C-alpha cells in the first residue's frame, strides 16, 4: 500500500530505472519456485472445480439418462438439451421466480442484518452479548432441524402461528394452510431463509462497524450531521466493501437455495408452482433421471449467477486495485 | 425366546435349502463350493419391516453363512429411487439386496440394474408367489425382482359417530360418498383425505373401471381422459369437497390421528379414514403396554372403532391401490451367492409366516393364513385380492418423483374442471411414461 502511494506516477513504472528491471524481470521469469508453489493450488482448483465442471458441460451435450447411468454409452447430441430446456415454459417461470426470490431474500437479509449490527453497536455490552449468542445459536442450528421446527410452527392444524393469530382475533387463520398458495409458501420460505442467514450478515457487519473510527463520527457530529446523515453518508460508505461482499454472497447463496424449499414441499405444497432452480434441477436430474437436461440447466444457472453477481465482482476488483 | 426358537428352525430349514441348491451355479465362490465369507448389505425402506424380522434375518444369515455378516440399512421411501439410481451402478458401493416399491420396479428391471433371478424362481416359491408383483418385476420374460410383501388399504371408521347420525356401513361407492358428506360438520371431516393424496384417490378411478395409463405395442399412453377415468375423478372430487376438511395440498397425512379422540378426550377430527392395515396399531383408546409406555389399544372397543372395505360402484369391493414391495439383487453385487442365500431366508416358510404374523401380506400364497382370521386379516386379504397396481411403465418412477399426480389431484380437489385437467395432464404424462 505504502509503496504505491509513494510512487508519483504509477502509470509509467518501467521508464525511470532502465538497468535493474530487465535482470530482475528475467530472474523472476525463469525462477521456477513461484510456478512450483502455484501447482498445488492450481491442481486443487482443477480437480475440485474444473473436473466436475468439465463433466457437467460434457453431460449437458450428451443424451444421458438412466440407461447411460447403468452402462450404455452416451451419444453426443450437441445443443439439443439446451434447446429442449429453453423451449420449456416451465423453465422460464422457474427462472423468473428464482431471481425474484433470490433478490428479495438477499436484500431483506442484508437490510435486517445491517440494522441488527447497528443495534448491537448501540446497546449495552451485556445486551450485545446476549444478542450475539442468540444470533450464533440461530446460525448454528442444523438446517433440517430448523426447517422442521418452522414447519411445525406454521402447521395448519397444530401450528403455533395459526393459534396465535386466532387468539388475536383473526379467526380466518383457523386451519389456514400457509404452504398451499405459492405466495404464502414463499413468504414462509423467506422467513426461514432470512432467519437463517441474518446472523452471518449481522456479525460481519458488526465487525465492520467496529472498524469505523470514532474520530470520523465525532467530526461529523461536530459538523452538525444528524444520526441518519451520519449513517447514510459516513458509516455506510466506510463499510461498503463488507456490505457489498456480504450482499454478493447472499445473492449467490439465495439463488442456489434448495433444501429449505424441498423440505417445505415435502410438507405438502403445490410442487410445480413452488420449484426454484435448485429444485427444478433436482426434479429433472434425480426425479426424472434426465441427467443431461439437469446438467444443461445447471450450466445455465452458473451463467445466471455470474451475470447477477458481475456488477459486484467488478466493483470488488476495482476496490482491490 | 420365541425368536431364538424360530431362528433355530429357520437355520435348519435354510441349511436344507442351501444344501439342495449348492452347486447349481458357479460364480465367485471359495474352493469348497460355499461363497467366500463377506459382509453384505440389505436396504429396507421405511419402518415397514419390524425390528423382530430384521433381527431374525441377521441372526439366521450369520449362522447359516459362517463368517459372513448382514448389514441392514434403512432407506426412506421418498429417497429410495434416487439412492438406487446412484448406488446400483457402482460395484464398490452398491447394496447387495434391495427392497423396492412394486411400482418402482420397472424403472430398474428394464435397464439391467438387477441380477437375473429366473434360476431361483421355482426354489423361492415359483407360482405360489403373488402373480401381479412377480409380473411387475419381470422384463423380457426374466424375473429380476420378486415380491417381498403386500399390503392393501381399507376404511377405518367411528361406528359411534356413524350410528349417531343414523348411518350404516355403506354397500356402494355412491352411498359411501353420501354418508361421509353428511357426516362432515365443518370441523370434523366425514372422510379425512388430503387433496394431493392420489394413492387413496385412484380407488375411485379403479372402481369406475378407469385406468391411469395403458400399454399398446410397447408404448404407454396416459388415459386420464378416458370417460371412466374422468367419471372416477369427478366422483372423488365430489367426495373430497363434500366430506374432507383436510387442505388440498396435503398428502401422506397421519390420518389415524384424526380418528382417535382428541388429546383432551374430545371429538375426533374425522369419522372415517382410509389407511393401510397396520394403521390399526395407531388407532384406539389409550392404554399402557407391558413396558409401561402409553400406546393405542389397537381398536379394542368395537363400538368406537371398526373397519370396512371401500365398496364398489355396484356393491362388492372397490379395487384399491396395491401397496407392497419387491426385493431384488443388485446386478453389480460382489457377493451374488451370499445375496441369493439371503433371498432363500426371506422366502423361507419361517420368514414368510413372520411377515404374516406382523400384518404384512406374505409374498408366498401358501402362508397367507399366517395373517390370522380376524376381521383385519380378512378385510386385508379381500381388499388385496381386489387391488390394482399402478402402470408398470419404465417412466413411472419419474412420474412419481416429479409429483405429477399430486399436482393433478390437488387441482381437482381445488375444484378444477376434470375433463380439461385430464387432457392437460395426459399430454404431460404420456412422454414421461415412455422415458420421454
From TrEMBL, chain A:
GO CC, any one term: plasma membrane
PROSITE patterns: ABC_TM1
TM region(s), chain numbering: 34-54, 91-118, 130-153, 183-209, 230-253, 291-313
InterPro entries with a match to the protein in the record: MetI-like, MetI-like_sf, UgpAE/MalFG_permease
Chief localization: membrane
Membrane topology reported for the UniProt record: Multi-pass membrane protein
Compositional bias segments (type: Pro residues): 10-23
Example GO biological process: transmembrane transport
Ranges for region Disordered: 1-26
Keywords: Cell membrane, Membrane, Transmembrane, Transmembrane helix, Transport
Locations listed in the record: Cell membrane
Residue ranges the record marks as coiled coil: none
Location of the ABC transmembrane type-1 domain: 95-312
Pfam families per record: BPD_transp_1
Family from the record: Belongs to the binding-protein-dependent transport system permease family.
Protein known as: Sugar ABC transporter permease
Species of provenance: Cellulomonas pakistanensis
Amino acid at each position: 500500500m505504502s509503496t504505491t502511494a509513494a510512487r508519483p506516477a504509477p502509470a509509467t513504472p518501467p521508464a525511470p530505472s532502465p538497468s535493474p528491471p530487465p535482470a530482475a524481470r528475467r530472474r523472476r521469469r525463469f525462477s521456477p519456485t513461484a510456478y512450483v508453489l502455484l501447482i498445488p493450488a492450481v491442481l486443487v482448483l482443477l480437480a475440485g472445480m474444473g473436473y466436475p465442471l468439465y463433466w457437467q458441460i460434457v453431460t449437458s451435450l450428451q443424451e444421458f439418462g438412466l440407461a447411460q447411468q447403468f452402462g450404455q454409452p452416451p451419444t453426443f447430441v450437441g445443443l439439443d438439451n439446451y434447446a429442449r430446456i429453453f423451449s420449456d415454459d416451465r423453465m422460464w417461470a422457474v427462472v423468473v421466480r428464482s431471481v425474484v426470490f433470490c433478490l428479495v431474500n438477499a436484500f431483506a437479509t442484508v437490510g435486517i442484518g445491517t440494522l441488527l449490527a447497528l443495534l448491537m453497536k448501540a446497546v449495552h455490552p451485556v445486551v450485545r452479548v446476549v444478542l450475539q449468542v442468540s444470533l450464533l445459536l440461530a446460525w448454528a442450528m442444523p438446517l433440517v432441524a430448523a426447517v422442521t421446527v418452522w414447519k411445525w410452527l406454521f402447521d395448519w392444524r397444530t401450528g403455533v402461528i395459526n393459534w396465535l393469530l386466532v387468539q388475536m382475533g383473526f379467526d380466518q387463520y383457523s386451519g389456514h394452510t400457509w404452504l398451499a398458495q405459492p405466495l404464502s409458501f414463499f413468504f414462509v420460505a423467506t422467513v426461514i431463509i432470512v432467519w437463517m442467514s441474518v446472523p452471518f450478515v449481522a456479525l460481519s457487519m458488526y465487525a465492520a462497524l467496529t472498524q469505523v473510527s470514532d474520530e470520523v463520527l465525532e467530526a461529523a457530529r461536530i459538523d452538525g450531521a444528524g444520526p441518519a446523515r451520519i449513517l447514510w453518508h459516513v458509516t455506510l460508505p466506510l463499510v461498503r466493501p463488507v456490505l457489498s461482499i456480504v450482499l454478493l454472497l447472499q445473492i449467490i447463496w439465495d439463488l442456489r437455495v434448495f433444501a429449505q424449499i424441498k423440505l417445505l414441499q415435502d410438507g405438502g405444497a403445490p410442487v410445480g408452482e413452488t420449484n426454484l432452480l435448485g429444485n427444478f434441477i433436482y426434479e429433472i436430474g434425480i426425479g426424472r433421471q434426465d441427467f443431461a437436461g439437469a446438467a444443461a440447466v445447471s450450466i445455465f444457472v452458473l451463467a445466471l449467477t455470474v451475470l447477477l453477481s458481475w456488477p459486484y465482482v467488478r466493483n470488488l476488483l476495482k476496490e482491490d486495485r | 425366546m420365541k425368536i431364538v426358537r424360530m431362528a433355530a428352525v429357520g437355520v435348519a430349514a435354510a441349511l436344507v435349502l442351501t444344501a439342495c441348491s449348492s452347486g447349481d451355479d458357479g460364480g465367485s465362490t471359495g474352493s469348497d463350493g460355499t461363497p467366500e465369507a463377506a459382509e453384505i448389505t440389505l436396504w429396507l425402506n421405511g419402518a415397514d419391516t419390524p425390528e423382530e424380522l430384521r433381527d431374525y434375518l441377521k441372526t439366521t444369515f450369520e449362522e447359516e453363512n459362517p463368517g459372513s455378516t448382514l448389514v441392514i440399512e434403512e432407506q426412506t421411501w421418498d429417497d429410495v429411487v434416487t439412492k438406487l439410481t446412484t448406488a446400483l451402478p457402482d460395484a464398490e458401493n452398491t447394496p447387495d439386496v434391495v427392497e423396492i416399491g412394486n411400482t418402482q420396479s420397472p424403472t430398474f428391471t428394464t435397464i439391467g440394474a438387477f441380477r437375473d433371478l429366473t434360476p431361483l424362481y421355482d426354489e423361492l416359491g415359483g407360482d405360489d408367489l403373488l402373480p401381479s408383483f412377480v409380473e411387475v418385476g419381470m422384463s423380457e420374460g426374466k424375473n429380476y425382482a420378486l415380491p417381498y410383501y403386500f399390503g392393501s388399504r381399507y376404511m377405518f371408521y367411528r361406528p359411534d359417530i356413524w350410528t349417531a347420525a343414523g348411518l350404516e356401513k355403506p354397500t356402494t361407492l355412491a352411498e359411501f360418498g353420501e354418508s361421509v358428506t353428511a357426516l362432515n360438520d365443518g370441523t370434523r371431516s366425514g372422510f379425512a383425505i388430503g387433496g394431493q393424496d392420489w394413492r387413496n384417490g385412484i380407488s375411485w378411478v379403479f372402481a369406475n373401471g378407469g385406468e391411469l395409463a395403458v400399454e399398446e405395442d410397447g408404448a404407454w399412453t396416459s388415459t386420464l381422459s378416458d370417460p371412466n377415468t374422468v367419471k372416477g375423478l369427478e366422483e372423488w372430487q365430489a367426495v373430497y369437497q363434500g366430506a374432507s376438511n383436510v387442505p388440498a395440498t396435503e398428502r401422506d397425512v397421519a390420518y389415524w390421528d384424526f380418528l382417535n379422540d382428541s388429546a383432551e378426550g374430545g371429538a375426533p377430527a374425522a369419522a372415517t379414514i382410509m389407511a393401510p392395515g397396520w394403521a390399526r396399531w395407531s388407532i384406539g383408546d389409550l392404554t399402557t403396554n407391558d413396558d409401561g409406555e402409553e400406546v393405542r389399544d389397537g381398536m379394542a372397543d368395537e363400538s368406537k372403532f371398526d373397519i370396512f372395505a371401500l365398496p364398489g360402484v355396484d356393491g362388492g369391493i372397490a379395487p384399491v391401490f396395491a401397496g407392497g414391495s419387491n426385493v431384488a439383487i443388485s446386478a453389480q453385487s460382489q457377493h451374488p451367492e451370499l445375496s441369493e442365500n439371503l433371498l432363500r431366508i426371506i422366502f423361507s416358510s419361517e420368514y414368510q409366516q413372520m411377515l404374516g404374523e406382523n400384518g404384512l401380506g406374505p409374498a408366498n400364497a401358501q402362508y397367507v393364513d399366517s395373517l390370522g382370521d380376524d376381521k383385519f386379516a380378512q378385510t386385508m386379504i379381500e381388499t388385496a385380492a381386489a387391488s390394482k397396481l399402478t402402470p408398470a411403465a419404465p417412466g413411472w418412477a419419474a412420474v412419481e418423483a416429479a409429483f405429477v399426480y399430486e399436482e393433478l389431484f390437488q387441482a381437482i380437489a381445488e375444484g378444477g374442471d376434470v375433463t380439461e385437467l385430464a387432457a392437460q395432464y395426459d399430454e404431460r404424462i404420456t412422454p414421461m411414461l415412455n422415458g420421454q
